[in-house]
Amino acid sequence: MKAGSSTTIRAFAALLLLAVLWGYNWVVMKHALDYAGAFQFGAMRTFYGAVCLFALLLLLRKPLRPREIPSLIALGILQTCGFTGLIIWALVEGGAGKTAVLTYTMPFWVMVLAWPLLGERIRGIQWLAALFSVTGLLFILDPLHLGADLFSMMLAILGGVFWAISVIVAKRLHQRVPDIDLMSLTAWQMLFGSLPLVVVAFLVPAPPIQWTANFIGAVLFNAVLCNALAWLLWLYALQHLPAGIASMTSLLAPVIGVLAAWWQLGENPSQGEVIGMLLIGVALLIISIQSMRSKAPVDPAMGQD
């Protein structure tokens, strides 16, 4: 086997493992909320995740000194504090699978928001992706029969919007400072973003944390596997796969999340929700194929915290 082919296979394997980690983590996070308040778990998930990334920076001898601190704080507020706080809050009442699908509408929101913020107009087949995304959201939200989980669904969608805005902010940062170290950027923005969650965790009343083996395992799964290891896998895939291929994670992860929630949590989506999820999946597939054809680079911020 040629060296190039071997590297590509390893990169695909890294991408697949990454999709499994990020997809299955929706079930892990849902379970963790049985033992701690939403903001308590969110604070631990992000703060300890940042600690793991700084340990990784030391191990890999990467630069520790932060650059572009105002942009790092903005990214932290958007992608770590806003995104994580919203999705954990959504999971309190919402199903793990549905929350995952609604959150992973992020590429659609990037496409929409890039028009006014970056001047990147929606063109050609992207309009079809937009149509499928909006129709899928309508099927899932079911505005004619609004249920008790409407609030959690709106939180999940808003989480996807926050994630999309952070991608646009990161794109601007990378255009301005192309040589900034991505691992260091991620560690610092996660640290800055975790601090407001830590403050909120102390201020919002919640039952005492139950320090069971399951809860400790959930925290470790998030901090070590879904942050430190996942970012290594993500950056490796971005370096060794053709432009746009890595964006397929946005298709695989929510599928794994839905299947895992159905298998472990007994979440059985309604017929309308299934149709909506399929439509959003088609939209994500169209966006991924369009990215591959145009050879558009995938911004590292599209990775999930």
Plain-language structure description:
With 305 residues, the chain is mainly alpha-helical. It has one domain (3-302). Helix content is 76%, strand content 0%. The protein has eleven helices and no strands. Helix 2 (38-60) crosses helix 3 (69-93), helix 3 packs antiparallel against helix 7 (150-176) and helix 3 crosses helix 8 (182-203). The model has no long low-confidence stretch (mean pLDDT 86).
Mean pLDDT: 86
Count of helical segments? Answer: 11
* Computed CA radius of gyration, to the nearest angstrom: 18 Å
Q: What is the succession of H and E elements? A: HHHHHHHHHHH
Specify the helix fraction band: over 70%
Total beta strands = 0
Give start-end ranges of low-pLDDT stretches.
none
Give the CA-CA distance, first to last residue: 35 Å
Q: State the domain count.
A: 1
| Global geometry | globular
